[in-house]
Amino acid sequence: MRMSHSALALVRGALTGHTGWPRTWDSPLPRDRYKVIVVGAGGHGLATAYYLGRNHGITDVAVLEKGWLGGGNTGRNTTIIRSNYLQDASSAIYEKSRALYEGLSQELNYNVMFSPRGVMMLAQTEHEVRGYLRTARANYLQGVETRFITPEEVQKRVPIIRLDGPRYPVLGALWQPRAGTARHDAVAWGYARACSAMGMHILENCEVTGVRSDAGRVSGVETTRGAIGCERLAIVVAGHSGRLAQMAGFRLPVESVTLQALVSEPVKPCMDVVVMANTVHGYLSQSDKGEMVIGGGADGFNNFTQRGSWHHIEETVRALVETFPMLSRLKMLRQWGGVVDMTGDRSPILSPTPLGGCYINCGWGTGGFKAIPGSGWAMAEMVANEAPGPLAAPFGLERFREGRFIDESVAAGVAH
Amino acid sequence: MSAHRLETGGRLIDRTRRVRFTFDDAPLRGQAGDTLASALLAEGRMLQGRSFKYHRPRGPVTADSAEPNALMGLDTGARAEPNVRATSVQLSEGMVVHSQNRWPSLAFDVGRIADRLARVLPAGFYYKTFLWPRPFWKHVYEPLIRRAAGLGRAPEGVDPDRYEQLHAFADVVVAGGGVAGLAAAWAAAQGGARVIVLEETGHWGGRAVVDGLVIDGHPAEAWVTATVAALEGLANVTLRTNTSLTAVHDHGYVLADEWPQDAGAGIAAPRQRLWRIRAGRVIAANGAIERPLAFAGNDVPGVMLASAVRDYAVNYGVAVGRRVVVVTNNDDAYRTALALREAGVEVAAVVDARDTLPGPLAQQVRAHGIPIHDGSAIEAVQGDIGVTGVTLCRHSGNGACVSAQIACDAVAMSGGWSPAVHLWSHAGGKVVWDADGAMFRPDPAQGPTGHDGAVFVIPAGAAAGALWGPQALADAHAAGLRAAAETGHPGHTPAPVAEAPEERAILPVWTMPEGAGPRLKSRMFLDFQNDVKVTDVELAAREGFESVEHAKRYTTLGMATDQGKLSNINGLAVLAAARGAGIAETGTTTFRPPWTPLTLGAIAAEARGELFQAVRETPMHAWHAAHGARWEPVGQWRRPHAYVRPGETPAKAVNREVLNTRQTVGVLDASTLGKILVRGPDAGRFLDMLYTGTMSTLAVGRCRYGVMCTENGFVFDDGVVARIDATTWLCHTTTGGAEAVHGWMEDWLQCEWWDWKVHVIDLTEQLAQIAVAGPNARRVLQKLGGMDLSADALGHMRWAAGRLGDFDARVLRVSFSGELGFEVAVPASQGPALWDRLMAAGAEWGIMPYGTEALHVMRAEKGFIMVGDETDGTVTPGDLGLPTGAKKADFLGKRGLERSHLRDPERWRLVGLETLTGSVLPHGAYSVTGGYTDTYQRETDGRVTSSYYSPTLGRGIALGLVRRGPERMGEVLTFPVGAASQMKARIVDPVFFDPQGGRLDG
């Protein structure tokens, strides 16, 4: 059952003490078999399921989650959405994603609070200036709206920034006006609600412990809630991709490391855009709640603890205090980490696998949140047609064998 | 004395010293030793804040760092500090304090309208509305929400204060200076272990002093004084007050946050100190947190934790009310009734949810004639901006039947105590539900483990779940002995013995009354700051947000600045009830650092301004600065981009420098180039692996250009290698790549080829290196005298060492400009003298320095690549026309280069580009084919990698990478450069100037 969301519905709810609201997504018992099983009820897995139903009419779908829905990186990131990537393959899928985000609240009837407040990436060396000039030109040809802005415009849009730091003066910025942020949890919940409304099964606390196959083709999975059969399997589990791949009998070129983030205590609005400073390694935005949301660096070693090294927090905070001096007297409220899956070229994998009927979507590394709708769209297309479409095609596993990398670190920026 | 200041009590205040401060511009007075909250309470100001969502009026609920309500802004401008907990900040003379999150005033806040609309604004309401019309979210709804949200005002400008970071090493760090912490420290120190004791507040002893514990026959206060004195007498013990252990990281790396109290006393102490401590064992003796009770109106100013009410009376001599009702489910709150009674404050009643027979504490209360309402609950609190009374009902019922009404102006509530498990949990320790004690306590079987697999956090006292004083002390003593033994310093000392009245069992109470309906529940607050009510958590459960993490995120329970210290346990108990599940299986959210919010300035500390990152300067830096250098940061270096003369534009300066070098002679400070010495019997073999070319065959005295690839086969650095002697090579790298190349070499030597006999040293900063280039370069050098630098003695790509004038120099005959060129290396200390000598010697030929930009122009004129311009991590040596195919032997990148995509004939390769008009192509421009990709992007087939105006040729020149470029000489490419304009450029040879290389010989 689904109740349409609107202001009127809230008023109606108030009259009954809000006792009439149904579950956001149902909690059914697993069936014996589904046409498609998606492993991982994070944003990417749920979006995959959603677009399987919406675009391809496949609703005999179960989404399996070992813990709680949206509990991985979907709920741990700094919510930045942008598509100002250098390489064509990247900008295509990220721009598709950004465009889908623009209408997502209305499409899902669930306010994911996509806020196109604009993202700027500061250029603080001549090298970075050249890199962003190049990116702006590439973006123009890719149909992504970006431009290089002057330090004066940076200051106007970000009053709290210090342009002439003693170390790395701000020489300009790559500005994407239609980029922004969204409420991360709501993206997962909104997709889950829509999937559930289409009759798909979302099975939480259902950990996959094995992959079954028959004559080189997937036939089902074993889980902590019993064996479940399927015709096609989509593995969408980010940091745990290596383990799932092992169960399915193949290896992946990914490493899992901890990436950290932190927020300050909430303050009244002081910065309305997202700023990324890659020379000094730090990025910053202010949530609607008023918290300054800060992204840190990734650890250099493999780790599944969801706790990172303190020195990365220090490095990030130093960089940001230097760039935004008023931060100095704010306080860090929370810090946390997520396990991100990094590939060699820091670009994702959307690919068929050596196991027939089994598809994998992983390797989003430090930049997965922004890609959720586009990734789900492309993954659904691949699973439905049993072949990658144009968005997914460049991200196949074979690229590592061929050396056909999609390397975004080549731009002055870092890959998140 | 003010109306609420008691005649007696106040062990922490100095009644003889007044302190003046302002609150919302009203001049007020407190006493030395007051917290901001106690001073305001003494002045009768119970209303101290507004809540986050509904802007409800709020007073303090605690007397410590768990405070969610009494948040204030201190100071203004660059020293402004938002969201300060009034309950834990010491009052100081002249303090300027503002209330927050209200407009126009604290007493009258327009934002309160949200409270009136609370029924339509339940948890998560924003997910269900603000959907249409679509542009309204960005332009209307979100700006409105943002303005209403946030708490304090952000500071403005550069923080004028200083922060410090210190390192310390300890066998045992004790968090908490209450009696448990002190007992643990004393026990731990007996065997000589290095012990650091950290106390968050400015005084020792914690709750026991207020609660009247008797230790070894003495009142707690006397025992504390004696124990602190004894600890101070031990050389192996360090005691610090105003310092909280704020984070426990893996392997015993802990952070402690100190607020030095001597700031402003003549010596400029830092505002804060962040201690980074390596601890063998951490004893978490940081106590327990009292839980509020969820009854209707439990957020009205004047409803406070029972422990806080007695803290204010005993520690600060402040009566929070004149007629107080105590409401509880446990015996501890009876101490509040007794403390108030002793301070002369009327206790109207004790309301106890339990039906059981009274214990010793209750008997004392009854003996004072204070009525006790057994089995009762507060049905509701009356009052809006202050308590005016309470109505009582049976706890076991639904509250429909009011049994009594009591007039009062404050309510002291206690829902029991939760061990502060935060420090146990930061690094992964798990907790277990103790149903008898109605609390989560550390699970000894699942502690955080260190590098050796042993548990390194030892909870002690109340933090371990030993809530009763005598038990807490015994537990802490054992914890101290254990920590000492585990760190190799076993010792012995008798355990202190404490006495306290017996306490009856707690009755878990999660809503009051137990069967309350929606009318009451919608007024029961769980998270005070974020305005999360019992009905909100129930709504979350109803909507399927059953996981404790979902409920937290959906309702924002526990996400306020108190990090859920007061709300977490109550909230998850309500959630468990709504799910029909047990508390144990519902579980907790993750307890993450920091314990209390940590100032970002303290994390950044001294790494600000000039100390933010090292600035590397060459020996000739001062000369450059004095001669108009416009700086360019390259890595941590600053290099002169150009030497701009008065009245000159930077572009004109670059042109002048290029022409002068081409026409006569120029000098460049090349000291920043990486200079890595590689030596050893296996050095040649090693360099053959590193470079795509062969270095082992290089003759002594000769130089060779080399390119390094990543394992994937992409160029990552280049430079000239000189063979110094049989076993020594000097490798030049790019300026920005020196550290990476050095690290790369060490990585291979240490991890893969550890048995190769090679030694690598980075000499970059040992040497000053000056490039002298131009037709007159040799003449300038020869004027210095000494070495024979003639073409016969020192041919191109050779080097020689000797005396050049007064200098011991190594001279390399290399050229990056295409002109006759030398690079002279001398010890760094000699650099400025050599530079001066060259400038003087070259004066007659019009010598001028040139900067990095002129260097770039000249190398582009010659078609030389620049790592970082022509390469970007995706470019192979073959793409750049640097052959590698001939090398049979293995090298790093060889296998990568064999992959199909890297051998694809369609790859983009290096060419020159010339516009048809002679104008300069924009940097980074792409050429288009006219077609489109599968994803509807315009198809490209080349890009500009370097583009300059060539003053030598008088027109624009560019290098670029173009699909099958060298096979397409003469073709014209189209470069879109704006919405409606494009430029056309012809593919030409990348060497624009002196293709025969005749100028190399001058």
Tell me what you see in this structure.
- The complex is a heterodimer of chains A (416) and B (1002).
- With 416 residues, chain A is of the alpha/beta class.
- Chain A has two domains: 28-83 and 85-110 and 183-254 and 345-402, FAD/NAD(P)-binding domain (3-Layer(bba) Sandwich), CATH 3.50.50.60; 119-179 and 256-343, D-Amino Acid Oxidase, Chain A, domain 2, CATH 3.30.9.10.
- Helices cover 29% and strands 26% of the residues of chain A.
- Chain A is built from eleven helices and 18 strands.
- In chain A, the strands form three sheets. In chain A, strands 1, 2, 8, 9, 10, 11, 17 and 18 form an eight-stranded mixed β-sheet that branches. Chain A has an eight-stranded mixed β-sheet with strand order 5-6-4-13-14-15-12-16.
- Chain A starts with 6 loop residues before the first helix and ends in a 14-residue tail after the last helix.
- Among the domains of chain B are: 1-153, Roll (Ubiquitin-like (UB roll)); 163-288 and 418-499, 3-Layer(bba) Sandwich (FAD/NAD(P)-binding domain); 666-858, 2-Layer Sandwich (Gyrase A, domain 2), CATH 3.30.1360.120; 905-1000, Aminomethyltransferase beta-barrel domains (Elongation Factor Tu (Ef-tu), domain 3), CATH 2.40.30.
- Chain B contains 26 helices and 51 strands.
- The longest helix of chain B has 18 residues, at 469-486.
- β16 (331-343) of chain A pairs antiparallel with β32 (598-599) of chain B.
The share of residues in extended strands of chain B comes to 25-35%
For the sheet with most strands of chain A, the description reads: 8 strands, mixed
Structural class of the secondary structure composition of chain A? alpha/beta
Main beta-sheet strand count, sense and barrel state of chain B: 7 strands, mixed
What's the CATH topology name of the largest domain in chain A? FAD/NAD(P)-binding domain
Average of per-residue pLDDT values of chain B: 95
Strand-residue proportion of chain A:
25-35%
Question: Into which percent range does the helicity of residues of chain A fall?
Answer: 25-40%
CATH superfamily of the domain at 163-288 and 418-499 in chain B, by name, is FAD/NAD(P)-binding domain
**What is the C-alpha radius of gyration of chain B, as a whole number of Å?**
38 Å
CATH homologous superfamily title of the largest domain in chain A: FAD/NAD(P)-binding domain
Question: Quick one: how many beta strands of chain A?
Answer: 18
Low-confidence stretches of chain B: none
Per DSSP, the total helix count of chain A is: 11
- Cα distance, first to last residue of chain A? 38 Å
